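Onboarding guide, step 5: your first structure request.
Type a short instruction followed by the sequence, for example:

Predict the 3D structure of this protein.
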Amino acid sequence: MGTLHDSSIQDLNVKVHHSSLILPIKEQEREPIFLSNIDKVLDFTVQTVHFFPANTDFPPEVVAARLKNAIRKLMQGPYDFLAGKLNLNQATGRLEIVCNGCGVRFIEASTKFMLEELGDLAYPNPAYRELIMHNWDNNEGQEQPLCIFQVTSFECGGLALGISTNHALFDGLSFKIFLKNLASQAFDHCDTPLAIKPCHNRRLLAARSPPQVTFPHPEMHKLDLIAEQHPVFASEDEHLDFKIFNLSPNDITYLKQKAKSGCETTKITSFNVVTAHIWRCKALSNSVQNNRERVSKILYAVDIRSRLNPRLPHSYCGNAVLSAYAAAKCMDLEDEPFSKLVNMVSDGAARMTDEYVRSSIDWGEIHRGFPDGEVLISSWWRLGFDEVMYPWGKPTYSCPVVYHRKHIILLFSDVGGGGVNVSVALPAKELKEFEQLFYKYL
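The system replies with structure tokens like these:
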């Protein structure tokens, strides 16, 4: 248990040496790629950074060359859509991926700092944003690519691989499969097979015809105005303070033991107890709406691959996650035993049956909307990006590039992987209250 403090540098002074556009080896004709109603809600960019120690057999320029070649091979076959663009089909009114071969952007850069000077890699340093270019100067008239790679070398010989993709392309699991396939093609062999053959049939998550909404979906917010934005996805103008709270393996074990008191059939998992703990702290720290009768709703992603009948392939490439929810009055979150909160979180995930998932997808066919809640738990914990073996080794650490949002709390592994780090950004007074509650309930 503890708070991670930022003792690292704030500006890496990254210098870009070369920027190129990686194009498919040859053009392929194909129909636009259908995007499910889950995919189309996630039209925003996600950036990750993967840190590697120095490897004398693989200096940064060799790594960059290997990666470029691997990307070309993937674009020629299973991942040709990386070189495409998002397009709104005027005839159908649906967002889709047009595979027009416009390419993937690749940046080679360097910094004079040593990798060790970054300090604790688990702390989401704002300087990490320099390790992946979010957009690029398109004076050449080319379109913004769906995927951008950046290899940044450190003075010590270590490097960072930054990857920016549109979320409509991948969820966490399908992105990890992509990374495994990228790593497999970076080995110096002509015909290395893919690590995992991806399933690209996104119509497996198409809505039924006609749509059948058989459940209420309070986890979704219907948008009546084209310009309306939901707070979960909106950026705030108010100043937010930021802290990282660490839950050690012992803390998680304590929360599990606490949850057992009064639990009957609840599945007591690490994720459920951590989520319940955060929910209680976030709801009760909201001093602006300090009303015990106020209902607090928490959202958290559930992988639906195993919940469908028949099951979705494990290798499904696309977004196969939906937002589960739990809701309760603040007075109940404060007064009820912890086991009751864990029950509610567990019940929210259990609600995701085949029929509920299909109903949710059909809801998206009828309505335009977004997930609706007071707070969204976005978990990068145990995705295992740092387990991927590249020719130059496994990453020392992999993490998202963090943008502070009041309504989004991030979970990600600590270095070593035994515990979990909780990234929270709130107004100063609210964050102080959150911190007091966080430790009080431990």
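Each response can be followed by summary notes, for example: Helices lie at 60-76, 172-185, 249-260, 270-284, 330-335, 338-350, 354-366, 428-440.
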